Amino acid sequence: MCTTDTVVLRLPITVEADAGLGERHIALQLHYQACSTDVCLPPVTLPVDAVIRVAARESHPSHSELFQKQ
Description:
Layout: E1 22-32, E2 44-54
Antiparallel strand pairs: 1-2
């Protein structure tokens, strides 16, 4: 039986003051290992292209529930 869920990873990102506006791509590598209660699969490394949008002023996230202050 295989199940699929969503995982949210929070990473601190600092944008330089002189960064150009618009989309910026950040190349990441996600290293994980899937396991069940009976068996674990071999570890996998997955390339991920994270996209951020640099704006001239403060913006509001599309999914504000993910960015609530803790």
